[in-house]
Amino acid sequence: MLAQCTWPGSCVARRLLGVVERAAVTGRGGRIRELDLARAVALVAVAIIHSSAWLVASGASPSAGFLPALASLARVCVPAFVLLSGATLWHLYGAPRPPAGWFLRKRASRLLVPWALAVLLFLLVALYTREVHDTASLVSWLAYGAGHLYFLLLIAQFYLLFLLLPRGRAALWWTALAALVLQEGLDALHTYGPNLSGAAAWAGTYLAQEEFPFWIGLFLIGCLAGRHLLAILERYRWWPLALLVTLIAGWLTLLEGSHVGGSMWQQGTGAYFWPSRLPFTCAFTLTLLWLGRALAGWLAHVQAAIDVLGQHSLGIYILHPLPLVLLGPATGGWADLPRLLLLLVSTLGFGTLAVLAWSRRGRDVRDVWLASHKRPSPSPLV
What is the pLDDT of residues 42-66, one digit of tens each? Predict the structure, then answer.
């Protein structure tokens, strides 16, 4: 029963929240809510990065102020998504090894088809903003992964890798150890190594964000976590310790970021590869998983929103930057904090509503909404 409306539009807002909650409950299946919470928080961090990009220079050090430090900490999002992808895949399909053809068809329909459509959409955006204005700029834009869409190409590589991973416990642990050494070595070279030139620069610097070796350790940690996911969640009472480690690791990440070089290859997107990013990501993700279990009662009040953001994180990730194309320039004279909040709310709100509008859950929301506003048929005359 809806409470009495106290301000104009409150009944509309409450009805909308009600139907979203009813739609979120349906089709939830056996999903693990803690994973949805972690994905939802990572998605908000992605929106912080893209929103703050209109206020913070790409090469700004975390020591330059609050917003550069916030953007730097928010870059835990993509590494967290990589780790969560490994955990989810192994939890669902780890053992026995799934049939390759079936698995790849299932994953391709969820990833490559949206990627192809999104490339066409964001190419129009790039033409509008003049980021793409000739053949050379088009080739460069595509090579760099079509903006934020590089993440879909990265995850596609991990789908292939997932099929090749050993299923035995000891072999998987040794593979994860080798992957950690490889990732931290490559990340250290990317952050502190000499400037590369020619083809080596493309492979080792410019395109690192879309190449799986620079992320492979996180993915394998996720696979190991997925192997024991339910047992890990049962240890949620250790969340205060995990939170303390996260705070320390976050401080160390900011400290490292303040001492690396100031080029766009070391800050900005290059900040994903600071060696301190890996332990920060692991502690951050574990804290979210444990807090999701420890605070389940309190989170029930916002569970519908968590479900929508977590279960539709990929679609929202793809579409959410669109409002920034117009709102970013239009808010150029605003103060930093109101501007950031407006961009953040707009980008997340647009991405969520756009995905819901085209999803099955969105159709459920729309049907319930229309039914609740359908005028009753006039009573037949007696």
Answer: 999 999 999 999 999 888 899 999 9
Single-letter amino acid, residue 119: V
Q: Where are the alpha helices (DSSP H) in 193-238?
A: 199-201, 216-227, 229-233
DSSP 196: P
Confidence at residue 313, expressed as pLDDT on a 0 to 100 scale: 95
Residue 219 CA to residue 84 CA, distance in Å, equals 8
Dihedral of the CA atoms 118, 124, 129, 130 (nearest 10)? 120
Total tally of structural domains belonging to the chain: 1
- Name the amino acid, one letter, at 35: L
Q: Which pLDDT value is given to residue 197?
A: 87
Of residues 48, 54, 74, 47, the one with CA closest to residue 334 = 54
Q: What residue type is 158 in one-letter code? A: F
Domain, as residue range, for 161: 73-294
Considering only the C-alpha atoms of the chain, give the largest distance between any 2 of them, rounded to a whole number of Å.
90
Q: Is the pTM of this model over 0.70?
A: yes
